[in-house]
Q: What sequence folds into this?
């Protein structure tokens, strides 16, 4: 085998793996972009026949999954692989072969997810949040959907191994003199990202294992009326909320490096930014996931707690970062009244629960909550939280009937 | 316009805005090609920048002279990249293992089409071959990453690297099992009727299994103590005992499952069946993985690979094995007694 | 940690398991017994965690590091049970 092929197939060196992640993530970004163009093409004129309803749903779902999980995060991981060892003075990651394994699992997981388009039944089509029981075999049959979920499980394994790798490297392999305080902000934010990955992704993996068991073995985790849908909501959003910070924080760290370097000054308030993120974002992000479930009928106390915690969570880091960047770039502190509303208003506008309920769960934080109630079979029930009729996600605008005779058992 | 509808009628009045959005999408897509073109031209360009062109204070640019950032972009290299420096870093095992896992997953998906089992079989063979190769690389030290001295280790100054790695991995596993067990508890709390304990699962068998696994934890601890005293034969004896007890656990569990299947209690026999089989199944897979690791350790012991000074790997395995035991300690009462 | 101590821990673990089963058979209907069984199981887990996994004797940083996942476990369970009220 020639040397070039050997190098790129068998490498475990962090810079090479970083380049592999970078190129592959751009490739997946391209695929996600094609799906987006198909969606836009379909919606450009009314009554378009470019995509069937099912195909459109597949495009929506896979565009979301691919862009978030196979493009954005891996792009951050690419830069992390390349730069964090350089920034802390390590020779490589803590476990180089596991690093390579993470990369290959990421690539092959993506290939599996793409394979779903070509198998009978089409790819996953229940939204990127893959709400159960819509994702159960009664409502989304076929091997195509199963292979997409298994590909997702492979990606999660990749990410978990990667997070172990990075956490051990950052805690354990810094060069002499590189104390945690001196560590550059990009490495700090990657550290936070990896901690959140370590604790968030296994929950999704647990959910996917149970969903795959439902699909492959016929178990009833999400098919039953005993809280099946709410169970998926809890598991998914316990992952889903930290996930948005996982996607965000490499970018924050990169900005914290790039702008001060271009301005020629050190980042002001770096310690405060790190303290704010460590103290507010990382722990609190695991407590607020139920703000994605405001319209599922949870008790009022939880709704109140989640709203306030979400406010408290979103204020310190962007505030600190924008202030610090402003000081670095411009050289002096601008007035509070400018930075403060600018820095976090958009996040806080989406948090209030009352607003979310009034808008039928459509504000961006609670985006996923429309279908988060019980299965379509409960439409006729007395549950006041059924949002099925307003979501209109199903093809043709009405919920599907179970596709197997008799449907899932009701216990 | 509501989200996620595949199409809309002309009367809705959304046509012109949608068309504008679609045209915007095309412009956006074209702009991405500019980005790619910029990237490609930059990478292939002839202009080589001087070291640290941004005068950055960050270590990856060499901006922190006290911190040795190796191979930093601005630092002089030998020009044609780093491939030659890192021959000892090549390993074919990661990609081979991934291909095996991918094939197995494709096979599982194809099961409902009837063609799954051959693909799964090929996948498992590739997995086994790559894991075996990985173990051999470790046994014969073919993959060597040099340990570095004098690292900044606060606050874990007395903890070896792999131990920290194992604890980090176990932290993730705790969350995985919290999800699975939490789901079981959630379902049980939400359902009006559940079979009384003792009616479906045999408690004496569960008790036996628990004692077997607890004893295997003891034997691992004794194995570590044996090798710390330098006794290789004892180490082999206790590791083999652990293996046999672990295999016994799996055997008893398999017989339980077979018994339940024969009584008509299947995966979809309601939620008690679903939760029991999936939870004990995942636990069983973890025990199996532990046994595979244990087989590697036993082989290495037989090769004389452990000594009084070099025995940490046994301890790391012990951590994983005790974790699996702790999970079972919770599983037993939750499924059999409560 | 001598071998004898490890063996004594095993004796406790085995005895606690047997007591759990005994409690179940003898007092099956009583809700308090469920709590007792849970507490016994928790104690077994703590013993294995502290002694077999050696946490009792480790550096403080590792002690804290190993307890941190419990925070997330409790958060997940608390949230899941809080959402049952619908």
A:
């Amino acid at each position: 085998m020639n040397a070039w092929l050997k190098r790129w197939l068998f490498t475990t060196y962090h810079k090479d793996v970083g380049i592999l992640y970078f190129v592959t993530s751009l490739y997946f970004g391209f695929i996600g972009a094609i799906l987006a163009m198909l969606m836009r093409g379909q919606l450009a004129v009314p009554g378009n026949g470019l995509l069937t309803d099912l195909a459109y749903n597949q495009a929506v779902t896979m565009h979301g999954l691919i862009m978030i999980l196979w493009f954005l995060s891996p792009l951050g991981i690419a830069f992390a692989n390349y730069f964090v060892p350089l920034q802390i003075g390590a020779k490589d990651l803590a476990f180089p072969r596991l690093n390579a394994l993470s990369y290959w699992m990421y690539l092959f997981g993506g290939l599996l997810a793409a394979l779903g388009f070509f198998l009978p039944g089409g790819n996953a089509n229940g939204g990127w949040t893959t709400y159960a029981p819509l994702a159960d075999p009664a409502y989304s049959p076929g091997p195509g959907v199963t292979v997409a979920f298994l590909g997702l499980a492979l990606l999660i394994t990749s990410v978990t191994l990667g997070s172990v790798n990075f956490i051990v490297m950052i805690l354990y392999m810094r060069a002499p003199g590189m104390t945690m305080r001196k560590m550059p902000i990009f490495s700090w934010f990657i550290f936070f990202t990896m901690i959140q990955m370590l604790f968030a992704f296994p929950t999704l993996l647990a959910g996917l294992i149970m969903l795959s068991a439902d699909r492959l073995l016929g178990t009833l985790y999400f098919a039953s009326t005993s809280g099946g849908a709410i169970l998926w909501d809890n598991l998914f959003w316990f992952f889903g909320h930290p996930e948005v910070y996982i996607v965000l924080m490499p970018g924050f760290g990169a900005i914290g490096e790039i702008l001060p370097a271009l301005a020629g000054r050190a980042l002001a308030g770096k310690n405060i930014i790190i303290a704010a993120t460590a103290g507010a974002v990382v722990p609190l992000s695991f407590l607020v996931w139920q703000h994605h479930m405001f319209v599922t009928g949870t008790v009022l106390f939880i709704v109140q707690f989640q709203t306030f915690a979400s406010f408290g969570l979103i204020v310190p880091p962007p505030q600190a970062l924008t202030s610090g960047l402003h000081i670095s770039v411009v050289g002096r502190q601008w007035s509070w009244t400018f930075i403060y509303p600018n820095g976090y208003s958009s996040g806080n506008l989406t948090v209030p629960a009352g607003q979310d309920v009034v808008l039928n769960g459509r504000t961006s934080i609670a985006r996923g909550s429309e279908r988060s109630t019980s299965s379509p079979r409960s439409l006729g029930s007395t549950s006041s939280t059924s949002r099925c009729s307003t979501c209109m996600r199903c093809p043709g605008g009405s919920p599907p009937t179970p596709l197997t005779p008799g449907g899932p058992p009701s216990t | 316009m509501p989200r996620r509808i595949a199409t809309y009628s002309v009367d809705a009045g959304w046509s012109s805005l949608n068309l504008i959005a679609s045209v915007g999408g095309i412009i956006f897509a074209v702009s991405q090609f500019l980005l790619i073109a910029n990237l490609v031209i930059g990478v292939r360009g002839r202009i080589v920048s001087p070291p640290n062109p941004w005068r950055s204070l960050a270590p990856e640019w060499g901006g922190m002279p006290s911190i040795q950032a190796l191979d930093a972009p601005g630092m002089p290299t030998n020009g044609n990249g780093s491939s030659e420096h890192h021959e000892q870093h090549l390993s074919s095992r990661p990609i081979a293992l991934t291909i095996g896992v991918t094939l197995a997953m494709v096979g599982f998906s194809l099961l409902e089409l009837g063609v799954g089992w051959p693909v799964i079989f090929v996948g498992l063979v590739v997995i086994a071959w790559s894991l075996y190769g990985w173990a051999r690389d470790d046994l014969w030290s073919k993959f060597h990453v040099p340990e570095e001295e004098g690292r900044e280790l606060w606050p874990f100054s007395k903890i070896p690297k792999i131990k920290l790695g194992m604890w980090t991995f176990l932290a993730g596993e705790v969350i995985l099992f919290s999800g699975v067990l939490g789901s079981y508890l959630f379902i049980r709390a939400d359902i009006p009727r559940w079979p009384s304990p003792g009616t479906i699962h045999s408690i004496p068998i569960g008790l036996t299994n628990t004692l077997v696994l607890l004893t295997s934890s003891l034997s691992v601890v004794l194995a570590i103590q044996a090798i710390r005293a330098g006794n290789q034969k004892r180490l082999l004896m206790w590791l083999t005992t652990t293996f046999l007890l672990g295999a016994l656990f799996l055997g008893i569990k398999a017989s339980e499952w077979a018994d339940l299947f024969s009584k008509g209690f299947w995966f979809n026999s309601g939620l008690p069946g679903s939760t029991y089989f999936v939870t004990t199944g995942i636990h069983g897979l973890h025990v199996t993985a532990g046994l595979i690791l244990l087989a590697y350790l036993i082989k290495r012991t037989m090769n004389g690979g452990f000594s009084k000074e070099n025995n940490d790997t046994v301890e790391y395995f012990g951590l994983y094995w005790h974790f699996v035991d702790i999970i079972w300690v919770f599983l037993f009462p939750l499924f059999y007694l409560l | 940690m001598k071998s004898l101590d490890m063996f004594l821990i095993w004796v406790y673990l085995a005895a606690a398991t047997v007591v759990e089963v005994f409690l179940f058979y003898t007092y099956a209907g009583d809700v308090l017994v469920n709590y007792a069984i849970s507490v016994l199981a928790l104690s077994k887990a703590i013993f294995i965690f502290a002694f077999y996994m050696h946490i009792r004797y480790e550096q403080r940083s590792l002690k804290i590091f190993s307890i941190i996942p419990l925070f997330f476990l409790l958060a997940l369970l608390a949230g899941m049970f809080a959402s049952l009220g619908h």
About this structure: Chain B is about 65% helix and 0% strand. Residues 269 and 275 of chain B are 10 Å apart (CA to CA). Chain B touches chain A through 104 residues (CB under 8 Å). Confidence is low (pLDDT under 50) at residues 75-84 of chain B.
